[in-house]
Amino acid sequence: MSRPDPFDPWRLALGPIRELSQWWRWWGSTQDCMMAVHADAAGLAKRRDARLAGLVAHAAANSPIYRELYRDIDPGRASLQSLPVVRRQTLMHRFDDWVTDRSIRLDEVRRFISDPARIGEPYRDRYVLWTSSGSTGEPGIFVQDEASLSVYEALLSTRFSAREHAESLWQTLAVGGRMAMLAAIDGHYAGVVTWERLRRRNPLLHACARTFSVLQPIGELVEALNAFEPRFIASYPTTMLLLADERRANRLRVAPQTIWCGGETLADAERARIESVFECRVFQDYGASEAMAIAFDCGCGHLHLNCDWVILEPVDAHYRPVPAGTASTTVLLTNLANRVQPIIRYDLGDSITMRASPCPCGSPLPALTVDGRRDDILCFVTPGGRSVRLLPLAVETAVEEGTGLARFQVIQIADDAVSVRFAPPAGTSRNAAWRRIRRALGDYLVAQGLGDVAVNRDEQVPRADPVSGKFRQVIRGPGVDSRP
Ligand SMILES: [Zn+2]
Fold first, then answer.
1. Residue 174: pLDDT over 70
2. What is the CB neighbour count within 10 angstroms for residue 216?
3. Among 89, 259, 356, 386, which residue's beta carbon has the most beta carbons within 10 A?
4. pLDDT on residue 115
5. Is 182 helix (H, G, I), strand (E, B) or coil?
């Protein structure tokens, strides 16, 4: 794909018009999001139902996959529960028939996201692309249209209570403050794409915001953060827990005013530990590559579902609804904001529990908790007796990016050994896949000072936990010490 020509006069002329239209769209979404939280349950349901009817009709008319799925259904009359459940693997295998812009092609999309230099760049001038990790076995690629992006931004700017506690951009700049995102930053993942997109569009943010890779050794990350001195940090709970230990040991010297955690489950005790060590508020959100801004922390410790833009159906293993107060086996997601790649009754794989009673904060949005959406932190001991802890997401990303494999499990079996289960993709021999895994994981471990850790081949296929039914990619085996 050729890169856009910056001197194209048509592009230059259309740029300000597009910016104005995006701003106007964002303003409309913001007004709607603000008004919706003052509505009662019936008012929220009315917004949700109108959007659902429009989305289902649009998908049936413009997405060949949904046209097939809904061929015996009248989209104008069907209830949500009568629509079939969809899964990532099936949809990804027919990506070109999934998207409603019939000119989008998977091969072109793959070329775009294979270039890290394009992270945060618009695709075809009007879409944003991101990819999910393969933690459920099949990496997904997601196309966002301008309408969905304006909804995500409007929800964040009107409903996320962290904004009330964070300094404004101006205040941050006035005190020389900076904003840091700690994540896997070399791929087109939703968080980093959104961060880079905002930086590209806002010169002030460009100057004060930076991303840091969680794949680097923790000592290097600590040094980089000490030099950057961020006032605002966004990252995964597991990263913040590791950094809390570094702060407690006086190696990390940053004093953030706000910490934003996302991407994994954050237990109450862990939140309290991070808040106590950093002496600041910690906020969390619940989002997915399939729908950003699903639910936000209200400040009371609960996540509130943005139910006018997202539908969550907590269900058991047979897709039967489970009542409030009961943990679901999985959850069916419907994203009412995005029409270019419809997500309707999509098996997301997360276990959630809807709160049975209203939240003390008084929000009309339903409250929920997300259960067990997390892999394990691995802890190794070097021959010199030094303890080194590795983030699950960093281990997963190192293998995934180094091998291109999606279906694998890294299991720590001793203080100085891991074993790897894997399923090679069609056309790749097991031995060839294993050589790639051993090289990628070995290189990563050497970079962390863990060159002595043995990487063993496990002939079992990757599988879900027999008790929870959850597929986890990075696991600390039974009996392996987790202490820092
Ligand atoms: Zn609340």
1. no
2. 16
3. 259
4. 92
5. strand
| Phi, psi (rounded to 5 degrees) for 424 | -70, 150
| Whole-prediction pTM | 0.83
Longest dimension (CA), the chain: 68
Three-state DSSP state, 283: strand
The model's confidence at residue 137, banded by pLDDT at 50, 70 and 90, is low
- What stretch(es) of the chain map to CATH 3.30.300.130? 378-476
Residue 99 has a pLDDT of 98
C-alpha 8/C-alpha 20 separation (Å) is 19
User: Residues 6 or more apart from 260 whose CB is under 8 A from it?
Assistant: 162, 232, 233, 234, 235, 282, 283, 284, 285
Cα 138 to ligand 1 centroid, rounded to whole Å: 34
Express each pLDDT in 409-423 by its tens digit.
999 999 899 999 998
Ligand 1 centroid to Cα of residue 164, in Å, is 15
- From the list 193, 195, 235, 198, the residue with the least C-alpha distance to 218 is 235
Query: Is 135 in a helix, a strand, or coil?
Result: coil
In 35-162, at which residue ranges do the beta strands (DSSP E only) sit? Answer: 128-131, 141-144
Distance (Å) from CA 299 to ligand 1 centroid:
7
Q: Quote the CA–CA distance of 118 and 83 in Å, as a whole number.
A: 37
Q: What fold does the segment set 13-371 form as a domain?
A: Rossmann fold (3.40.50)
DSSP-derived secondary structure for 311-333: EEEEE-TTS-B--TTS--SEEEE
Amino acid 1: pLDDT: 40
The DSSP secondary-structure symbol of 105 reads: -
CATH 3.40.50.12780-classified regions of the chain:
13-371
C-alpha span between 426 and 439 (Å, rounded):
20
- Residue 43 structure tokens: 């008012």
198 neighbors 150 (Cβ within 8 angstroms): no
CA pair distance 350, 347, nearest whole angstrom: 8
**How far is ligand 1, taken at its centre, from the CA of residue 87, in Å?**
31
Query: Does the domain spanning 378-476 belong to CATH 3.40.50.2300?
Result: no
Q: How far is the CA of 365 from the centre of ligand 1 (A)?
A: 8
